[in-house]
Design goal:
Low-confidence stretches: 6-11, 14-22
Oligomer: single chain
Mean pLDDT: 87
Strand order of the largest sheet: 1-2
Helix content: 55-70%
Strand content: 5-15%
Structural class: mainly alpha
Length: 225
Amino acid sequence: AADAPAGDAKSESVTQERSVWSKDDEHPTTRTTMVSLKLQKRLAAEVLKCGKRKVWLDPNEVNEISMANSRQNIRKLVKDGFVIKKPENIHSRSRARLAAAAKAKGRHTGYGKRRGTREARLPTSLLWMRRMRVLRRMLRKYRDQKKIDKHMYHELYLKVKGNVYKNKRVLMESIHKEKAERLREKAIAEQFDSRRTKNKASRLRKLQRREERLAQGLNFEQKKK
């Protein structure tokens, strides 16, 4: 089999020269006929799983290729090297990668390179959705980890929706502050309760002592009588 040519074979027909005797001439004349390989190219494209433009048919084996009228015959020709799948065209991404790396550093992004408005390039609704998703994800995580209860979760969820917190750091600080405030209120309430129970106990003791004194006075008077 001959080597595949570098250029694309545009024509699906191959020229074949045949020597034919003419009645008037003593010497044979050359008549050119075209052998159509349209069917073979289509079958080869199906067998090789590529487009017809990627199929190369050996021009030196036209007769044998033209006899192939089934996929099995085409597979045999492929095995023999008479039908070849052309290699993929190389499309380098090196320049695109360099440009992307430069853009990541902030090059080529000035006013002259911008086509859309600020809202079109980065919509405020998209920024809002991103912020909401980040903050709500954080609240869910804290609730699942039992760092906040369901009541605080609901309260903070509504505040997040009301645009109270602009980022995770502010929300985290607010959570810590709220938890500290609740702990302080709880401690104050416990102190108040303990003081109240203590005062109640002291009042009860006073009443008992008063009743005991009254009872002792009554007993003393009765003994005198």
